[in-house]
Amino acid sequence: MRQQARLVDLTALGPLSYRDVWDLQHELHERVRAGTVPQTWIAVEHEPVITLGRNAKIGNLLLGREQLAARGVDVVEIERGGDVTYHGPGQLVVYPIRKLERFREVVPLVRSLEEAVIGACARFGIEASRWSEHAGVWIGCNQICAIGLAVRQMTSFHGIAFNVSTELDYDRLINPCGLTDRGLTSLSREAERDVTVEEAKAVLFAEFERVFDVQFIEALPSTSVVAGATPSLGMTDVGEALGAAAVARGACECAASQEGRSGAGASESSPGRDETSVPESDCCRTSARAGSL
Description:
By secondary structure, the chain is α/β, with parallel strands linked by helices. It contains 7 helices and 13 strands. It is globular and about 50 Å long.
């Protein structure tokens, strides 16, 4: 019998603030870790944001923070592994929040995520593969999906960024992983037609069910987002939860500022016995650019 997994599908809300969903990740991570809810997966699109992992080098930001802010691009330091990456509209981001029995399950988790994305691409008639040098999914030398995880108290969070109809010029903003000989691609480009996030999501989550042998139960149907009833999550309307997270984050940033620290989402301490991270892989350059942000 398949294990049930909860799906918190936020894609119907359109692109959302990274920081608010990041706070929601932490809240759900604690619940999954404590065993009060089963494994929970979040599906979301983000407003334009650049995230800096534990190993990020500031030189991989090709524009200053003020320039990025002027273009509507946030910059957030986070606790996942890896360097710098971009999220934005047209990119399907999935956060699997799952309890692990042992640390050696982290790499198999990454491989299973890759397998599901490769399977989803195949269902669109696209041949994708892994690359031994970096986690993620590639079509030739172009990356279609980045993967970056963190594990705290034996529970995973962060996840994958699958380019569906993403504008592929974001390498003008960042220099992902410092690579110069690889590019970026998307499902729409490879399929030579417009693929929606909704269409890609249905196929990808069918592959997740196959690979992880789970059955997704939508903990947050899109109609409930509007209606404001999410009893299966044990919280009120996710809109309220995201709003409360934003208020709480603002209070934390204020306190951090008073203590002389940056409030822009400081990364946590280096992983010890109880915490680890798996580097994210990003592509660097694309030969065909769709314009600039």
